[in-house]
Design goal:
Elements: H1 8-19, H2 25-32, H3 36-46, H4 49-59, H5 67-73, E1 86-87, E2 90-91
Antiparallel strand pairs: 1-2
């Protein structure tokens, strides 16, 4: 799988977002342009084998990692109306 050139900081942020339960793959796609398959390939390349297996077992079948499945189930977390909108990891 061909991955775009990414800085070390971007790779670290993608890994962090991939580990988070409530961050869908669509958010990673919107911010970094990586598909789910590319995120999986990046994680396989960057993580130790045991960490890779742990992450894959954790993510596989998880509703919260897919926005389409997540919104159908009503799993979006509560968001306060006073919370500032966040886009691209920058407060707007």
């Amino acid at each position: 799988m061909e991955l775009p050139r990414l800085s070390t900081t971007e790779i670290d942020r993608i890994i962090e977002m991939a580990w988070e339960d409530r961050t869908p793959f669509e958010a990673i796609k919107a911010q970094f342009g990586l598909s789910e398959a590319q995120v999986i390939a990046l994680m396989r390349r960057e993580l130790k084998p045991a960490s890779w297996r742990r992450w894959r077992a954790r993510v596989q079948g998880r509703l919260t990692k897919h926005a389409a499945r997540r919104s159908a189930e009503g799993l979006w977390p509560f968001r306060c109306t006073r919370q500032k909108p966040i886009s691209g990891n920058r407060i707007t």
